[in-house]
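Handout, section B. The chain below has 111 residues.
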Amino acid sequence: MSSNPENDILQKLAEILEQRKLADPETSYVSKLYAKGLDTILKKVGEEATETVIAAKNGDPEQVIYEMADLWFHCLVLLAQQDLKPDAVLAELDRRFGLSGITEKAQRHSS
């Protein structure tokens, strides 16, 4: 799925995040997150989500983009920590494309 240029950055980041699993936590922020474990990564995702909400409420588009980038980055760290790839999320979004939200939600609840 990473054949289109917009998705290339996700693939590149995913590859770097995998490499950081082997890096020294003293020299790599991401490696330090991995070393601290899931709870620390989840806390960072929550913090970045909150900061994104605040930026949106403040109506500052540049700050929304900045905070959203932080949020997406930390979500990618979470995916890597869970041994998942961004392509799996993109495939799920692709699966939902064209489905109404109501239909998609009903399908989830009927399974």
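Note. The CA atoms of residues 10 and 86 lie 7 Å apart. Compare this with the example in section A.
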